[in-house]
Structures are given as structure tokens and as C-alpha cells.
TrEMBL record, chains A, B:
Entry keyword set: DNA-binding
Domain annotation HTH tetR-type: ranges: 16-76
PANTHER family associated with the record: HTH-TYPE TRANSCRIPTIONAL REGULATOR PKSA, HTH-TYPE TRANSCRIPTIONAL REGULATOR RUTR
Pfam families: TetR_C_24 (PF17932), TetR_N (PF00440)
Annotated PROSITE patterns: HTH_TETR_2
DNA-binding region (UniProt annotation): 39-58
Official protein name in the record: TetR/AcrR family transcriptional regulator
UniProt keyword DNA-binding, yes or no: yes
Length: 209, 209
DNA sequence: CACGCAACCTAACAAGTGTTAGTTATGTAC
DNA sequence: GTACATAACTAACACTTGTTAGGTTGCGTG
């Protein structure tokens, strides 16, 4: 039987898998395959343990997925807040906005399986899990709202844009990249620049006729 | 037993449910609850029949969901193509683009459970179903690409925009509205205008300093 | 060397899944 | 009234799911 060898492909035989190990594997699988088709047995197998053992670290599957959702948002939130706050105090609205957009995309596409898993599976998890994740989510949304409101108060943004609306549009558009972005076809930075260009200046040629 | 009455709540006792009836119910449930948590038994119960009876009309669950995915895209495609082709031949690029955006959003948020179900569950269905749905999907994407390429050739679009990239960005942003749009807070038309405004002109105040 | 704890395993449970085969009721055509 | 197709029902199948209870292993501490 090659069954023994097959197991060793995914199992590295180093120290304990632990709570973090399970979370890492689960986040990756959720991102790749969605919530519904990733069972505890699948997570356990990839992590190199047995399904029942997961209950040593977690009380339920919901607890796992909620933990992933929360840390996923916090990762993006941190990345974005840091990028904005590290701008020079006299930075222009455009520069700040570009930094925020780039940070969000980087967290999503580069840094964290947790962030991408969040975007992918949020709409698939049980309502109770979604509700439990809402506060963390609202906190990140508030960060964007406060940034956009500041830029609007400065007069940098057009005065007829609705901040909440713009935030939904921005984050929605950025998150959608997860569905098709391929690092082999271009860098995250180039993608971010592209998106920022559209949001900042639009796509129509300036009319000079 | 009130079991008989309970059944009658969802069952209207009119003629046969039929293939179309099953599809309508399935599309609605998929849109509302996602793919994974909608079983054949749930579909059957809401439709007012028993689970096994579904196999009179369909060969498998995959066949149901694929049918929904296909008609979902075709509905948006038709709506968008009609909106564009019914524009005056001297219509400006901006007007045409606004019509296309509005049509896509209307199909998604107003018209069809199939369209919204498609967007919601595409990422959750088995790979084989996704593959089978791809041709229909590509056809719609090609429609957008050809429209955008035309506008770019006219010189209406900035010459440095990548058509494929812009299409992905546009459709991604529009589809994301499904996740939060609430008809009680505003009309689809107002939403479409908002989105078109951003894409066309951007959000930054024109600099006159 | 014994103890204790952390981290895991084994084996089973009840519930739910898609699917199938065989059966039944209802109408329509000849 | 017989024949046939339509549209459903019933009951079971093999399987997967999250979850639980109790047992086992190995390692560090006293």
C-alpha cells in the first residue's frame, strides 16, 4: 500500500500541529474551496491529524470559522490603518487614497489566507457566525468611512458623493479581484494603481470639444 | 395533526409544479441561502413536492444548478445587449456606458432570481458545474469587451485603460452590490447613476489650484 | 521513576446528503 | 374501457457530516 506514503505528503512530522496549525490549514482550504465543501475531516487530514482531535482545540466548527473571519478582517484593517497613518502629514488626498487601496489589496491578495478566506466564505457561513463577525467588520468599515469623510471635509472629494455608498463600492470592487487575480499576470501594486486611477479620475477621456 | 395545513402553507394546490416550478424555487433558495445549505429536500418541500420527485425532471442536482447558472447569465446578457442596442446611433460613449451599467444592475437586483443566484453561488458549486457554465459566461464577458473596445477605438475611453481589466473591475463592482443593496434604501436607477458617475468621472474634485 | 498534562487517536452516534427503484394517481387519446 | 404518458410518491441505499466519549502517547517536571 502506498497509503502510508500518501499521508506523508501532507504531513511533515514536525512538532505539534496545535490550534494555530489547524487555523492555518482551515483558512487556506476555505479560501481555495469555499466553506461548504471543506469538512473537518478534510482540514484534519491536510493538517496531519484526525478529525476528532480538532475538538481538543475548538468547541465547534463555527468557532473555527469565526476565528478565521475575525482575524481575516483584522489583518486587512491593520494593513490599511498602518498604510494611511504612515503617510506624511501634508500628503494629498489622492496619495492617501492610493495607499489605502493598495494596502487593502495587498492584504487580500498577498499577505493573508485569513483575509481572502473571509471575503470568499462570509456569504456562505451560518447566520449566527456572520452575526458574531459583524462587530469586527463594522470596525473596519468605520475606518474607511472616517477616512473618506475626512477627505470629503477637506474638499478633496466631490461634495455630492455619499461616503457610505462610496465605501461599499470601493471595498466591493477591491474584494471582487480575489475572484480572478493571478499574480502571474501582474503585480498587486500594478493592480492597485489601475484601480486607484479609475476611482480617482474615471475612465472617460476629458472632453475638449 | 396540523401537518396537512403546514404543507399547504407553501403548497398552493394549483396544477403541476413541473420543471420550471422546481427551477424557480431552487433559484430563489440558492440566491437567499447559498448553494451548500440548500438540499434537494428543502427545494422539494418549498416547491410542494417530495425530494425523489425532482428526479422526474432532472438527472442530478448538478443539472439543476447548471441550468440556473446558464439562464442567470443569459438574462443579464439579454438585458445588457438590448439596452445598448436600443441606443440612438449617435449616442455618446457616456450614455451607452450608463445604459449598460444600468441594465446589468437591473437584471441583477430587480428582474431575475436566476441572475442573482448565479453571482451568489458560482464560487460555491462543484468545479465541473463551473466549467460547464464557462462558455455562457465567456459570451457575456465578450459582449462587454467588444463594447469597451469600441468605445476605446472611438477615443472616448482613455487610451491607457486595459479593456479586460476594466471589464473585470466593472462587473466585479456591480456584482458586489448584491451583497448589500436594499431596495428600501434607494432605487436601482439611483444606484446605477451613482456607479456610473464614479466610473466615468472619478471621485476627486477637479484640481484648480 | 512516577506523575500529570498536552496533544492526539479510535470508534461510534444521529442527522442529513444525493440518488435510485418501484409504485401510484391523474388525465388524455383511441 | 383500455392504453399510455405525465407527474408525482414511498422507502430505502450508501455515504458524509459535525460531534462526543473515552482511551493512548510522549514529554517535561519534581
Amino acid at each position: 500500500m502506498s497509503n502510508l506514503e500518501t499521508n506523508q505528503v501532507t504531513q511533515q512530522a514536525r512538532g505539534p500541529v496545535g490550534r494555530e496549525g489547524v487555523l492555518d490549514v482551515a483558512a487556506r482550504l476555505f479560501r481555495e474551496q469555499g466553506y461548504g465543501s471543506v469538512s473537518l475531516r478534510k482540514i484534519a487530514q491536510v493538517a496531519g491529524i484526525k478529525a476528532g482531535s480538532i475538538y481538543y482545540h475548538f468547541g465547534s466548527k463555527d468557532e473555527i470559522v469565526l476565528s478565521i473571519l475575525d482575524t481575516g478582517i483584522m489583518a486587512v484593517h491593520d494593513e490599511m490603518r498602518l498604510a494611511v497613518s504612515s503617510q506624511a502629514s501634508d500628503a494629498s488626498a489622492e496619495v492617501i487614497l492610493r495607499a489605502a487601496i493598495t494596502a487593502h489589496l495587498r492584504a487580500l491578495l498577498d499577505v493573508s489566507d485569513y483575509s481572502s478566506a473571509n471575503v470568499r466564505i462570509f456569504g456562505q457561513v451560518p447566520q449566527s457566525v456572520r452575526d458574531a463577525n459583524l462587530p469586527t467588520r463594522r470596525s473596519y468599515e468605520a475606518e474607511w468611512d472616517s477616512l473618506l469623510a475626512r477627505l470629503k471635509a477637506n474638499g478633496a472629494l466631490k461634495q455630492d458623493v455619499d461616503v457610505r455608498h462610496l465605501r461599499l463600492m470601493l471595498i466591493g470592487a477591491l474584494n471582487a479581484t480575489l475572484e480572478w487575480f493571478d499574480p502571474k499576470r501582474g503585480s498587486v501594486e500594478a493592480l492597485a494603481k489601475n484601480y486607484a486611477d479609475v476611482f480617482v479620475h474615471g475612465i472617460l477621456e476629458k472632453q475638449d470639444n
